[in-house]
Specification:
Layout: H1 2-17, E1 40-52, E2 61-73, E3 79-84, E4 98-107, E5 114-117, E6 127-129, H2 133-143
Parallel strand pairs: 3-5
Antiparallel strand pairs: 1-2, 1-4, 2-3, 4-5, 4-6
Amino acid sequence: MKTCTSAMALNLLLVATVTPAHACRMNARLDLQDVKQASIVVVGKIWDYEVVPGQPGKPGFGRFKVLVSEVLVGQSPKSLVVTWFNSTFGYPDKLAEGRALIALREINYPKPNTLMVLQTPCSQPFIFQSTSAEAEGVRKILSEK
């Protein structure tokens, strides 16, 4: 009887604590120093945002275009297609279009040399209004590099 009770208690504990791997119990504090992990940092106009639904075995993602007006790190063409994997919070129906500072990393999914929005787990993405305090902080960090 004692063994059965212990096993039931353990099962209840496991069921109560198991959460999906992509879920976050708490949002992580944004650390602007993470911008140092970016391959490319640009300022530009965001447009043509869409959510690409997932397929069996492949996650969905957000995608948008950027008309680049300033390159802060790396090399960039005048126009970029950007992928955003945001499994932490899901994807908004609409992304504010306009000038933004965006930090990106190169990955090889869904195709080689894809530019992905920099976003540490459980934190907000590195997409900031170009005149925001966060964008100013990123510029300061990059100038100290």
